[in-house]
Specification:
The chain is built from 2 helices and 24 strands. The protein is mostly beta strands and 377 residues long. Strands 2, 5, 6, 9, 10 and 11 form a 6-stranded mixed sheet that branches. It has a 5-stranded mixed sheet with strand order 14-22-21-17-18, with no helix packed on it.
């Protein structure tokens, strides 16, 4: 094999870029022998894809239907040897090391990278060494794109949440009392690395014991197939949970159910009709005996810039002043780190040897608020 090494190095730690930014990097190529090639192409693209199967009918009429959806966000194609060809009139590559710089501007409305069991949103860079009358030599790698979502630009997310619900208990048509549950949060928009300040007040005016109270942050990925017809499928994952003590008969108690937000893809706001990511909190009062539990659901939004509060350092940047050519800039608040998300369920596909998509995990911005609180002391 005369191709000794071929790789793509992005000029950004962890290969994470925001939508609207310029993706820059270097293609490294090492050849053992001289090569005559017609082109050395760099293709950078982004797409969403989903696929699953369902069975219909029964017996001899039973059949399997595969549903799929695809959306191409963008594709750029550049011949890295075009400049050399213009200067020398040849496309020959000599033995040894070669470096090719590249810069590609991403569209500003891209959704965040996402990996799921039934589909994905992926951004790839592929280089192809085209040779006359011979098989092309290829290399492909993936990078993360994050949709910039400043939660301060969404006034509804800054409003406090007060969710009240109740449940009446009966035994053979005889009322055994009422359970009241009140959920409070100061706002409903959060970023990875932040704690969701969640409190729950339970007033148990009944003769039924409440065993415990559970809180879960739920990520829902909704896939939309367009072939052979339009159909949706939902994947639900619990990404954070907390359990607190319950409350006895005739008692009242307020419990802390604050949840840590791990590395997560931001909520979907961009133009993607194949994959949509949503989040919600589900708070459950687990009831003893044969009675059903009391549940409360609160939608929340995961963004990339936290809401300004009296205990967080002011952020100088707003949506209106965002410069897509650079990552978000902050004043006192430490810039986020970019942590790899744990992909529990990944869409199973067959891959070529040079395609490492089945090993790729996106990275998302994660803030360290503990550092900020230490600075305030």
């Amino acid at each position: 094999m005369s191709l000794k090494n071929c790789s793509i190095t992005f000029n950004r730690p962890n290969s994470v870029f925001y939508s609207g930014e310029t993706v820059t990097g270097i293609v490294n190529l090492t050849l053992e022998n001289n090569k005559v090639c017609s082109a050395f192409m760099l293709k950078i693209s982004g797409k969403a894809h989903c696929s699953w199967t369902e069975s219909r009918g029964s017996g001899k009429h039973r059949r399997t239907v595969r549903y799929s959806g695809h959306q191409q966000y963008f594709t750029t194609l550049n011949n890295l040897m075009a400049e050399q060809h213009m200067q020398t009139g040849t496309s020959d590559l000599t033995a040894g090391d070669h470096k090719f710089n590249f810069a590609i501007i991403l569209p500003s409305d891209l959704p965040s990278s996402c990996e799921g069991y039934y589909g994905y949103v992926r951004y790839t860079a592929k280089i192809t060494l085209k040779r006359s009358f011979k098989m092309d030599l290829c290399y492909k790698t993936l990078f993360t794109v994050v949709s910039h979502i400043d939660l301060n630009g969404m006034p509804s997310l800054k409003l406090p949440i007060l969710n009240e619900t109740k449940k009446n208990f009966y035994f053979f048509c005889a009322k055994k009392g009422t359970l009241y549950m009140t959920i409070q949060m100061p706002f409903s928009g959060f970023v990875s690395g932040q704690y969701i300040p969640l409190t729950c007040n339970l007033k148990n005016d009944s003769k039924v014991k409440i065993e415990c109270v559970k809180a879960g942050l739920i990520k829902t990925i909704e896939y939309t197939a367009t072939s052979p017809l339009t159909k949706t499928k939902t994947e639900t994952l619990k990404v954070a949970r907390r359990v607190s003590d319950g409350v006895g008969r005739g008692e009242e108690k307020t419990v802390d159910l604050s949840l840590y937000v791990p590395a997560l893809p931001p909520s979907s706001f961009m133009t993607s009709y194949v994959i949509e990511v949503k989040y919600e909190l589900i708070i459950t009062a687990v009831v003893s005996g044969m009675h059903s539990d009391l549940k409360s659901t609160i939608p929340v939004t995961i963004g990339t810039v936290p809401i300004r509060t009296n205990y967080q350092t002011t952020i100088e940047q707003s949506t209106s002043s965002y410069d897509p050519s650079a990552p978000p800039a902050y004043n006192e608040l430490m810039p986020p780190s970019y942590e790899e998300v744990e992909v529990e369920k990944r869409m199973e596909e067959s891959y070529e040897e040079w395609d490492h998509s089945n090993e790729f995990s996106p990275r998302y911005p994660v803030y360290n608020f503990s550092i900020e609180k230490e600075k305030e002391k």
